UniProtKB/TrEMBL annotation:
It is found in: Cell junction, Tight junction; Cell membrane. It comes from Columbina picui (Picui ground-dove). One of its GO terms (molecular function) is structural molecule activity. Belongs to the claudin family. This is CLD34 protein. The gene is Cldn34. Pfam families: Claudin_2 (PF13903). Keywords: Cell junction, Cell membrane, Membrane, Tight junction, Transmembrane, Transmembrane helix. It is a multi-pass membrane protein. PANTHER family: CLAUDIN (PTHR12002). One of its GO terms (cellular component) is bicellular tight junction. InterPro entries: Claudin, PMP22/EMP/MP20/Claudin. The chain crosses the membrane at residues 6-28, 40-59, 84-109, 121-146, 176-196.
Amino acid sequence: ASTSHLQLATFALGTVGWILCTVSMGIVEWRVWHVGNTTIISSGIAWVGIWKVCFISYLHVSPGYKELFCHKFSGYDSSIPQEIYAAQGLLLIAMFMGLLGLTATIFALRNVYMGITHKTLITRFFLVGGFFYVFAGLCVLIPVSWNFYSVTHNQSIAFPPSYYMPSSPVVQEPGAAIPIGIVAVILLLLSGTFSLSYRFPVTTNTVTK
């Protein structure tokens, strides 16, 4: 057990990375759009996520109150860019792969700390866990990089009229989900690297007289 401290850290990093992956998938702040027309988007700011778009509107609301208006993306909206739909699928895969990596690591650590000296079994589970961590990290990296590229190049989205969104913002910037996703990538890749580096300790028998 004294030789598996790095793998214990792997489990901790992988857990945090998996949680951040899940958080980035759930929040709507992937792209922050600043719009010029505030007739409907009262605050002048809209948040474009991978599942929906949201903004604050005072329209048809009692004075002094505001309403958060959200519209979920539909699979039939051909105007939604591919990087958004790709992010939906890849992050779901990453969440599932990360969970498998955590499961494999837990099983391997259980055997180590219970004193089970099944070398092949323990090593294989650490390797499998490392593979899942790396795969999950890459699945997060692709949508994060793709959407960050779209933000930095101020790419427009031809939203349907029912979304009440302009086709392009005055300016846009990365939302909180992107840096969260970047940290998740780093932690998952580190976890995978540490887990893949596990080597079962070689023990030597000593004879005392």
